Known about the structure:
five-stranded antiparallel β-sheet; 7 strands; globular
Amino acid sequence: xxxxxxxxxxxxxxxxxxxxxxxxxxxxxxxxxxxxxxxxxxxxxxxxxxxxxxxxxxxxxxxxxxxxxxxxxxxxxxxxxxxxxxxxxxxxxxxxxxxxxxxxxxxxxxxxxxxxxxxxxxxxxx
Length: 126
């Protein structure tokens, strides 16, 4: 039997994947929120929104970010406290103060701060 006589498998239409933005920031980068007065160091990145619908719906609709963009987990700080923040890429900018972030969890994840970013400890790298 020649190759030409073998029937082709039936064609199945591919399911289109939604567009996904590429991450603008990396783990260890120090960033600032575009609208609110806090900054932080990135310790994880989700390629698209990966939090609860309840969390998302709690954001006022007129400022609610799109879900089809990277979202970043930050060890964040403001003038009053330190905390964990989950922020869309569209709401982050590079922090240009060249100051380290004062968050108690930084020493557990990162080695040192230099040039506006933290170096991840080898233990936490994949």
